[in-house]
Amino acid sequence: MCAPCLIGVFTALRPQHILSVALPFSPVRMLALIVWVYMCVYLVQYFQFSPLVPKRFKPIAYVTGLLIGPLLLFVLVTIDVARKALSGSNGLEAVKRHFDDLRHAASTTSGPLHLFDSSGRSIDQIYGHGENKRLVGSVLRLTEEIVSEALDRRASDILIDPREKGIYTVRLRIDGVLTTVHEIPTVTCKAVLNSIKAVSNMDISEKRRPQDGAFVARKGDLNASFRVAAAGTLLGEKLSIRVLNQNAGSFRLKDVGVTKKQHAMLHDAVKQPSGMILLCGPTGSGKTTTLYALLNEIDRSTRNVITVEDPIEAVLPNASQIEVNPKADITFAKVLRSILRQDPDVICVGEIRDEETAEIALRAAQTGHLVFATIHCDSNAAAIIRLLDLGISPNLMASGLSLLFSQRLVRRLCDRCKREARLSDALIREFEAKGITYSHMYDAVGCSHCNRTGYLGRTAICDPMQITDDIKIEIAENRPFMTDLRNTGAKQGKVHLRKEGLKKVASGITSLAEIKRVVG
To answer: Which segments within 99-154 are labelled E, that is strand?
Structure first.
């Protein structure tokens, strides 16, 4: 063949033509075929050692697995995931909670996080003006990363504290337990503190006196509000940032963790035209969440609902919400007096802190209004004692109170890694003597899904106390009853909470160690 002919042949054979001649099959189809074969062989091996398939049906299972292995494997995995999701005490609610977590995670990871003050100005506009813009930019990124991590890990508080040796620690309170997540050099962390104080409308030049502020974060579809408190310490200034629960407005009583009996008791109290439902518990016990759950049980389109809060944590449709502001002389007591002239059906008091607020709220409950309120104390008995110590008369208390509701929050065991509890012989004998079922008790283990803690999420253990006519008479007239409350009330409250906690343990919801940590 002549040279011009050879050149023509090689010119016509382009690389794609050479590839098509060299590979007369599709590499993708070949790879899919190999994966299919391996999955079929894997499923046959699974059937060989699986107790789910009876021995006499194993040959049929082998042939079926070799033919349609991947499809069967997909079905088995789907069934296994559904079975695990439905294995909890409330199967459908567990599935709903799982998808809510996925949706929440998707919303928090979509898009960058931005911080804004109460007027809508971004942190860049407020703090991003300096000679060294690169340094300021790195500080703002670190600030946003700390806040973003707190949201992603479902933290309720961010604590930034000075330590010795020139460092600050950043700790997150996740499900009620503090975890150290960062150690930052003092110079860098002071700039972070100033950026947070600036976006919270606080004075960055003041390092010793306590200050309060607030800011907002937006990340994708998520809007989160934060309350900030600054204080001077021996080693330097510290910040405490409370992440306000934005989902509280959608909570119902069934989401809080109350039992059917407690739900019925609360539901009946909410349907009453008057009286006070007083929620009791220490800081972080979920009182505000339960308060919103009670408000969501009310038809707010037919009843005039007015709330007094500090601060407003979630927006309630068809309700008038008023925020306390001591700097503007807007206090609980002054707002309550004005509310009584606005024809309310339901009044919600975020927290009873003083005698004046307690007296006005109880008189409102006495004069035909339904009142919801919270108070910081350990038990139902301690709530009565606290009201007496504030100066409330026993007669007013007896006529106004209708239900006391003490609660704590305990962590839920992670369904993916919890294991059957290893109980001592003495503990087993104690449970058998008390008639407590211990076959469904579990211990925390820890996995990547729960950040190695063994727990994911929290639920409430509650101790309701209905103020019956007999109890009203004893409060109003019987001084020995009040003395007995002072002496043994707190102890009895702990016993009741411990019993409710053991029910959660017996149902596999939480662990004995968690009940001991929370209740004692």
So the answer is: 113-116
467 and 453 in one domain?
Answer: yes
Determine the number of helices (DSSP H) and then strands (DSSP E) in the chain.
19, 16
Check whether the bond before 480 is cis (ω within 30° of 0).
Answer: no
Domain final residue, candidates 243, 259, 289: 243
- Give the SS3 label for residue 219: strand
Statement to judge: residues 457 and 308 lie in one domain: yes
Give the pLDDT confidence of 296-350 residue by residue, as tens digits: 999 998 999 999 998 888 888 889 999 988 878 888 999 999 999 999 999 999 9
What residues contact 92, with CB distance under 8 A and at least 6 apart? 86
> For residues 23 and 373, what is the distance between their CA atoms, to the nearest angstrom?
77
Q: What is the CATH number of the domain that holds 236?
A: 3.30.450.90
Query: Do 465 and 369 belong together in one domain?
Result: yes
Q: Specify the pTM.
A: 0.73
Q: For residue 92, tell me if it sits in a domain.
A: no
Residues 295 and 421 in one domain: yes
Asked if residue 158 and residue 232 are part of one domain, the reply reads yes
- The helix (run of H) or strand (run of E) holding residue 212 is strand 211-219
> Which H/E stretch holds residue 304?
none
Q: What is the three-class DSSP state of 492?
A: helix
Q: Residue 167 falls within a domain, yes or no?
A: yes
Q: Which two tokens stand for residue 475?
A: 């409060």
What are the C-alpha distances in Å from 119 to residues 123, 125, 221, 371, 482?
Answer: 11, 12, 19, 32, 50
User: Phi/psi at 206 (nearest 5 deg)?
Assistant: -90, 120
**Mean pLDDT lowest among 30-34, 208-212, 502-506:** 30-34
State the CATH number of the domain containing residue 433.
3.40.50.300
pLDDT of residue 1: 46
pLDDT per residue as tens digits for the range 145-159: 999 999 989 899 999
Structural domain harbouring 179: 113-243
Instruction: Give the pLDDT band of residue 491 (cuts 50, 70, 90).
Output: confident
122 closest CA partner among 217, 192, 206, 251: 217
The CA distance from 21 to 13, in Å, is: 10
**Alpha carbon of residue 511 to chain centroid:** 18
CA distance 70 to 324: 61
The continuous run of DSSP H or E covering 311 comes out as: none
**Alpha-carbon radius of gyration of the chain:** 31
Q: Which helix (H) or strand (E) holds 357?
A: helix 355-366
